[in-house]
Structure formats: structure tokens, C-alpha cells
Specification:
- The protein is an alpha/beta fold.
- It is built from 7 helices and 11 strands.
- β10 and β11 form a beta hairpin.
- The longest helix has 25 residues.
- The chain is globular, with a radius of gyration of 21 Å.
């Protein structure tokens, strides 16, 4: 009788521990310090060898393109109610330390990080890897009308490639060494597919569309993303700017659908959305960076 009671208690203890163990399996070193990340950037770029967990589950899908040679990932950090900023525009920082570290890990694994000129002006991001180990990606600003100031931190010289994608007839004044990529504009806007093709022609294969909300939304709406990483912070803003904005649909069954996995990272939750089934074919990178 005693053995049966002991076995029952042991079974109950195992069942109670399963949710905790599942959370720990998904959580990165921000929740529990883990030195395994240091080897991830180099392993990620090799054609063989799995990443140590939890990194294989989170970043493994970004190693190879499912549609063509390219891997295009968008990211947004938001509140529970899908806001990226308050009504006054304040956004630093919606996500916690774990969410910010995840963004820097994404940067460390891609060849280039892309932001729109609005984000470059409003936030003046460095777009470097500072919170984690890994190489800095090339920095790209989409600026159709030549608005980015030459003092923008993303354009600072640090031996990393810097590019500004602009409309063909736009005159820009930029620091030395910044590559200017002219593209034909349509009503003052540059097509996401054309942007990706231009970057692929310059050797960039894995590309992170980091922000802002308008830029990520345009790439999503143009079906130019393989994955979308949505980092949800445990706060509710109630009003403010939405994380994504797409053309309206009349019926729910017309909505864009994507398989999704959730990962707990510290106090934030990462929603990894697989968009590869609806991504348009763009092309192949000319060279590997």
C-alpha cells in the first residue's frame, strides 16, 4: 500500500514539474544564464551541425530558405494589446532585457539589418550587436526621399557595410563609404521585392527587417517575409501605435494565416510565425557574405 502511495506521489510530482521543464526548455540564458550562445553565430553559418538548445528551436528555421536562397525575417516588439509605442510615441523600452537580447541575437545571425528612414530619424538606432556575442550585420536604411541625416548613428564608420536605399532621382549627402542603392520609386515608395533583390545582388542572403512598424508591415503585405518574430511584453498600453497595419479584409477566412510557435524568453513571449508558404520568390544572393 505504501509503495502505491509513493508511486502516486512521484507521478503527481512529475506531472507538476512538466510545465516548468517545458518553460525552461524554451527559455534562453536571459531566464537562466547559459554560455551555449557563444558558439551559435559560427555554428549557425555552417552547413552542418545543429545549434545547442534552446537556440535550434528558435533560430534553426532561419538557417536556410524554404522558398529560394534567401531568408527574410521581420521582427516587432509589442505590448499585449499589439502596441509598439504610446500615443505620444514613447517606446523605450516596451520589451524587457530578454526581448532586447533576442533582437541583438537576430542581428548577430543575419547578413544585413534593414530599417526605414522614419525609425532612423526618430530612434537613431546603432543597429549593432552589443548585448550578445556575434558579428555586427551590414546596416541598411530605406530612404526614398533623402531624409536621413549624415550624422545618423547607423551610418557611423566602423568597418561594417552601410547602405542607403533611395529613389533613383533623389540627391543624398552621406558620409564617405556609405553605399547608395538607387531604385525606381512608385508614388514615392520603394517596392519591398525590389529592395530585397538589390540587397541579394550585393551578396546579402539573410536579411532582418527590423522596423519600424510601417516598414515591417509593407514587407509583410508584399509577402516578402519567411518568418515574423513578434516579441510580446507583459504590459498593456491601451492606446498608441499598432505593431502591424495591412489592407483590410472583409472576412476572417481571408486573413493571412501562419503556423506559429511560442517561446518564453524571460518575462516576454516570442511568437515565431512561419510565413514561408505565402512568400513570393525573390531570387538568390550573388555572393555569400
Amino acid at each position: 500500500m505504501g509503495d502505491r502511495r509513493l508511486a502516486k506521489r512521484s507521478k503527481e510530482a512529475r506531472a507538476a514539474s512538466e510545465p516548468r521543464l517545458a518553460r525552461e526548455a524554451c527559455a534562453g540564458p536571459d531566464a537562466s544564464p547559459d554560455a551555449s550562445w557563444a558558439l551559435v553565430p559560427a555554428t549557425f553559418r555552417r552547413a552542418f551541425g545543429s545549434l545547442p538548445q534552446p537556440w535550434e528551436g528558435i533560430f534553426g528555421p532561419l538557417r536556410r530558405g524554404a522558398v529560394d536562397d534567401l531568408v527574410l525575417v521581420g521582427q516587432c516588439g509589442q505590448s499585449i494589446d499589439a502596441r509598439v509605442a504610446t500615443s505620444t510615441g514613447h517606446s523605450h523600452y516596451i520589451n524587457g532585457e530578454a526581448g532586447l537580447a533576442h533582437l541583438h541575437r537576430l542581428r548577430a545571425l543575419v547578413d544585413a539589418v534593414v530599417v526605414g528612414v522614419g525609425t532612423a530619424i526618430a530612434d537613431d538606432p546603432q543597429l549593432t550587436v552589443r548585448r550578445v556575442a556575434g558579428p555586427n550585420p551590414a546596416r541598411v536604411i530605406v530612404d526614398p526621399n533623402g531624409r536621413v541625416p549624415p550624422t545618423a548613428r547607423a551610418l557611423a564608420h566602423d568597418d561594417v557595410r552601410r547602405l542607403v536605399i533611395t529613389a533613383t532621382d533623389t540627391v543624398v549627402k552621406l558620409p564617405g563609404g556609405v553605399e547608395i542603392v538607387p531604385l525606381a520609386a512608385d508614388n514615392g515608395e520603394l517596392a519591398p521585392a525590389a529592395i530585397v533583390q538589390a540587397l541579394a545582388a550585393r551578396g546579402f542572403r539573410r536579411i532582418l527587417i527590423e522596423g519600424g512598424a510601417d516598414t515591417v508591415s509593407r514587407f509583410l503585405g508584399a509577402r516578402c517575409l519567411d518568418r515574423l518574430h513578434v516579441m510580446v511584453a507583459p504590459i498593456i498600453l491601451g492606446s498608441g501605435r499598432s505593431s502591424l497595419a495591412l489592407p483590410p479584409v472583409a472576412r476572417v477566412d481571408q486573413a493571412m494565416r501562419a503556423p506559429m510557435r511560442a517561446h518564453v524568453l524571460g518575462g516576454d513571449v516570442l511568437l515565431d510565425c512561419d510565413l514561408s508558404a505565402q512568400r513570393v520568390t525573390v531570387g538568390r544572393a550573388k555572393i555569400s557574405t
